[in-house]
């Protein structure tokens, strides 16, 4: 059994393996989570929620908390402008039945940070301590925190952040190996993660250490684990259009699905999309980004993406894919004969996070800005 395919204990919660899906804002809805779970993800999360939106009983935010009957284990992530608001939100989330709750102190999106949330918390070390302290008092469920190396490269404070969250008794923490000011073009700093991980080794209480950043395949997952001594890894952008990454890491061998398998998974994702969102224009619009990510790496796929990016009906998307499939060999391997891979300059999350300024449910953030 590979290292990643071993169970792991977070507080009183036992997870089947050590490969987690990050709570991706604007992405981690039920259909996407189900696909990732089926391909092996040991832990998935509802996308990041706003504590302010919860305080306002925002309808959209509570809809985002929905879970499918097949989701036996599901986490939730929260961020907020004050420690008290985060704690209040966690007391609400505690009653929703989530198996684990995470505090986000790493989101880089401008409007999230401007509202004093996400990685904006890192600028105030005392607030880090207060937030986790009040959060810990608000729930007995496994509690974790996710953060970056610091706000800027000149203000790296990740060791101090680890010391603070450990002092307030988190069960797990996740470190993304960049600062808030660094874009995805800056390589993940594994040495920075390692330094902080070693800080946790001196802690007398058991805590799970998770590495995050630039995990796109088995080799990068192994590099993260071996160079940082993390106990588990969290996959973010690497799962976009490639949920097979979980299968690859867990099986410890390269996984490149043939076209027929790829098509089956994409159609299943569309079925889940329709089941959850209905036969609506919204369902098709929300599926577009996934279809763009899925269709990367096949011959003449740019023209396919151009039309998929305009679909307003899921049946139209299915018809386009069936037509494309008729002209693609069933045994064609994705990215065959191409130097392009999933860790290339193609960066959809950067587009969403930094250029389009997508973050926590917009309705809630508008009230917290």
TrEMBL record:
<feature type="region of interest" description="Disordered">
    <location>
        <begin position="346"/>
        <end position="369"/>
    </location>
</feature>
<comment type="similarity">
    <text>Belongs to the dus family.</text>
</comment>
<feature type="domain" description="DUS-like FMN-binding">
    <location>
        <begin position="21"/>
        <end position="322"/>
    </location>
</feature>
<keyword id="KW-0694">RNA-binding</keyword>
<dbReference type="GO" id="GO:0050660">
    <property type="term" value="F:flavin adenine dinucleotide binding"/>
</dbReference>
<dbReference type="InterPro" id="IPR024036">
    <property type="entry name" value="tRNA-dHydroUridine_Synthase_C"/>
</dbReference>
<keyword id="KW-0820">tRNA-binding</keyword>
<feature type="compositionally biased region" description="Basic and acidic residues">
    <location>
        <begin position="346"/>
        <end position="361"/>
    </location>
</feature>
<keyword id="KW-0560">Oxidoreductase</keyword>
<dbReference type="GO" id="GO:0000049">
    <property type="term" value="F:tRNA binding"/>
</dbReference>
<keyword id="KW-0547">Nucleotide-binding</keyword>
<comment type="function">
    <text>Catalyzes the synthesis of 5,6-dihydrouridine (D), a modified base found in the D-loop of most tRNAs, via the reduction of the C5-C6 double bond in target uridines.</text>
</comment>
<dbReference type="InterPro" id="IPR035587">
    <property type="entry name" value="DUS-like_FMN-bd"/>
</dbReference>
<dbReference type="GO" id="GO:0017150">
    <property type="term" value="F:tRNA dihydrouridine synthase activity"/>
</dbReference>
<feature type="binding site">
    <location>
        <position position="176"/>
    </location>
    <ligand>
        <name>FMN</name>
    </ligand>
</feature>
<dbReference type="InterPro" id="IPR018517">
    <property type="entry name" value="tRNA_hU_synthase_CS"/>
</dbReference>
<keyword id="KW-0288">FMN</keyword>
<feature type="active site" description="Proton donor">
    <location>
        <position position="107"/>
    </location>
</feature>
<keyword id="KW-0521">NADP</keyword>
<feature type="binding site">
    <location>
        <begin position="236"/>
        <end position="237"/>
    </location>
    <ligand>
        <name>FMN</name>
    </ligand>
</feature>
<keyword id="KW-0285">Flavoprotein</keyword>
<feature type="binding site">
    <location>
        <position position="146"/>
    </location>
    <ligand>
        <name>FMN</name>
    </ligand>
</feature>
<feature type="binding site">
    <location>
        <position position="77"/>
    </location>
    <ligand>
        <name>FMN</name>
    </ligand>
</feature>
<dbReference type="Pfam" id="PF01207">
    <property type="entry name" value="Dus"/>
</dbReference>
<keyword id="KW-0819">tRNA processing</keyword>
<dbReference type="InterPro" id="IPR013785">
    <property type="entry name" value="Aldolase_TIM"/>
</dbReference>
<protein>
    <recommendedName>
        <fullName>tRNA-dihydrouridine synthase</fullName>
        <ecNumber>1.3.1.-</ecNumber>
    </recommendedName>
</protein>
<dbReference type="InterPro" id="IPR001269">
    <property type="entry name" value="DUS_fam"/>
</dbReference>
